[in-house]
């Protein structure tokens, strides 16, 4: 195992026993796949997959000013979140570029959990700490704590995910699972062979399927994550649950049209270019970091916009490939792959704003060969409700 440069998760030994292929991702030593990328992808679409997401960051924001502080620091109105609910938002710089996209859970009146992406956790943590001082010099009464190393995160995603979780929770937690809505979080108890294990179930995910992300304390009980994985894996056998790596996670999120930081989002990419203008609370907040720049971008319109591209073959457009219109460069692919679910190639790309209408015929330069693609509506795949 490459631990000299990459950090192991609390589940690294489990992945090794399962025969995973590993890669460095955001400074973490993560399972890329256990066997077939496509088989793992299809398991999530048809039954369920289990993922180790312990590389994701967890930042605790608490204190009397926690809601007001997050309203200042992020582009959304986080103070409006109800206890037990979650909200997707963006952490932007002064120029409107996206430092990170993240989910924030409200655990209590003055208690929030902010979940940034793995590689961006240091930058998100630094930005939040810097923003504890407001525009007028007033210091927000908040405490910011990095809980990443103390937290393990496991996701169970797919149509069978609820049924699997109902098999592992204590009887008193059954109603909490079945009544949990999308973008909500609840404390539950999981039964393990060595006793009850308190965890948090969040009905969130990055696959386009129904599913849960499960937070467990990995500091006070350093074996908790492995015990949780084991009981989930055991309960999931009858439901077709399989372990899934980062490769299938990426193809799943691409089909669902979900952005990946470093591809569809970055500090040089603003929310309006990325199709995320709806999360920017210009109407309900008079001041937050990046507001002036974002208001200007919205008024003028972004110089490029993110679109979905598809063709009728499996010849994939990869990140960095040039998008063409009438032989002239008009954009660049940010993510692309053959879609295991749809059976043809799909891609996300930034193009000129006048070329975003679904049905617009474009080409992508696939290693010197212009290949036909068309603009399609996002997401590429939407599960049946």
From TrEMBL:
**Domain (Aminomethyltransferase C-terminal): residue spans on this chain:** 304-382
EC code(s) of this entry: 2.1.2.10
What is catalyzed by this enzyme? Answer: N(6)-[(R)-S(8)-aminomethyldihydrolipoyl]-L-lysyl-[protein] + (6S)-5,6,7,8-tetrahydrofolate = N(6)-[(R)-dihydrolipoyl]-L-lysyl-[protein] + (6R)-5,10-methylene-5,6,7,8-tetrahydrofolate + NH4(+)
Q: Name one Pfam family in it.
A: GCV_T_C
- Subunit structure, interactors included: The glycine cleavage system is composed of four proteins: P, T, L and H.
**Function, as annotated:** The glycine cleavage system catalyzes the degradation of glycine.
Q: What is this protein called?
A: Aminomethyltransferase
């Amino acid at each position: 195992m490459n631990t000299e440069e990459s950090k192991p998760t609390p589940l690294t030994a489990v992945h090794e026993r399962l025969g995973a292929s590993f890669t460095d991702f955001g400074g973490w030593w993560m399972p890329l796949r256990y066997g077939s990328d496509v088989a793992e992808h299809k398991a999530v679409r048809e039954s369920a997959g289990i993922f180790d997401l312990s590389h994701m960051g967890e930042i605790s924001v608490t204190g009397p000013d926690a809601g007001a502080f997050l309203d200042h620091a992020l582009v959304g109105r986080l103070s409006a979140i109800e206890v037990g609910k979650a909200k997707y938002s963006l952490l932007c710089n002064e120029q409107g570029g996206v430092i990170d996209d993240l989910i924030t859970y409200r655990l209590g009146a003055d208690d929030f959990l902010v979940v940034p992406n793995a590689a961006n956790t240091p930058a998100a943590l630094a930005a939040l700490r810097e923003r504890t001082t407001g525009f007028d010099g007033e210091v927000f009464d908040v405490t910011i704590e990095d809980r990443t190393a103390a937290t393990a995160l496991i996701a169970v995603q797919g149509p069978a995910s609820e049924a699997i979780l109902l098999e592992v929770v204590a009887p008193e937690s059954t109603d909490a699972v079945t009544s949990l809505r999308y973008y909500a979080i609840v404390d539950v108890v999981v039964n393990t062979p060595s006793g009850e294990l308190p965890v948090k179930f969040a009905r969130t995910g990055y696959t386009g399927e129904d599913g849960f992300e499960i937070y467990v304390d990995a500091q006070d009980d350093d074996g908790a994550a492995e015990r949780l994985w084991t009981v989930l894996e055991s309960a999931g056998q009858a439901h077709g649950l399989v372990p899934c790596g980062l490769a299938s996670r990426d193809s799943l999120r691409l089909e669902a049209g979900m952005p990946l930081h470093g591809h569809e989002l970055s500090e040089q990419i603003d929310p309006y270019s990325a199709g995320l203008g709806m999360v920017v609370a210009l109407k309900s907040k008079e001041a937050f970091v990046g507001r002036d720049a974002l208001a200007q971008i919205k008024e003028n319109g972004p110089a490029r916009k993110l679109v979905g591209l598809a063709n009728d073959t499996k010849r994939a457009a990869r990140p960095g490939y040039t998008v063409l219109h009438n032989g002239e460069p008009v954009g660049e692919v940010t993510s692309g792959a053959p879609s295991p679910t749809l059976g043809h190639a799909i891609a996300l790309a930034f193009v000129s704003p006048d070329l975003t209408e679904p049905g617009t015929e474009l080409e992508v330069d696939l290693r010197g060969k212009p290949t036909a693609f068309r603009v399609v509506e996002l997401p590429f795949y939407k599960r049946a409700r």
